[in-house]
Prior knowledge:
The protein is α+β, with helices and mostly antiparallel strands.
Amino acid sequence: MRIGKLTNEQLDRLILSKLKHTRKEVVMYPGIGVDCTAVDVGGRLAVLSSDPITAAKTRIGSLSVNVCCNDAAASGAEPLGLMVTLLLPPDITEKDIDELMDEFVEAAANANVDIIGGHTEITNSVSRIITCTTVIAREGKRGIISPAGMCAGDQLIMTKHAGLEGANILADYVSTEFFTDDELSTAHSFAAQTSVVREGLFAADNGATAMHDATEGGILGAVWELAEASGNGLVIDKEAIYVHPVTEKLCRHFSLDPLRLVSSGCMLITCPNGQNMVQALNSLGIPARIIGHAEGEGVRLSDGTPVEPPDADEIYKVVE
């Protein structure tokens, strides 16, 4: 099978369709475009989500913390704690582990979450560091924001820029023969932008109808999943999607599509009045722009070109 996530068809047929929903306490179940679950633990909802980091060589701790907390924030939930599993190759050193945990602790502090448990193991089943992190979060003031909440007429907003997590990873696979030190430093700086907790919690409290963070499959993959989860169509203005020049150059170098490149740190938000939301986010120092609106069925670009379901992320063309 190909590297990366299962296709949505495979995920539904092989995994999701087999799951039984028997507990009344579970109020949100897994589905296409739904990255969290919510459990009623006595009048309040606990929100949980898990994510691995498998492709990155550096900044693994910060990516692990941010990518996992992002799923909770996309549901309007405040991250509280993290369970962290570390699978480490036999050639790792104590110094490597020490530095990895320093990065985890710093990222957790920046995200205002505690690391509350997990598992650490040296195993010859992996050839590089693999992490899997589970976040435990608390529902927001308006309850759970579901990807299914997008309504016809809503405007679609994206924050920051497309492919930013992918650009950070790709910078580990090139040399200064093709890129300057400044360009590689810029790409690596994107790791500090991979959290969407601030925009997620703000948007949830200020009228967002749905949110989805753009992980594997990139911006266009996340757009398709958002439409699939809500049952509403989307029209996308491709020219409005911002791609940083360094990301553009990295993608040209590897012949990749930046709009299909893993984009943790970029949040998709739908709401009735997109301009007000954009202005509010910009006032908080979070770059945001309107890139489309909910209309009709399916997903298409403004020129009528259909947007296909997400396939394997572009990053795996390089990581493989």
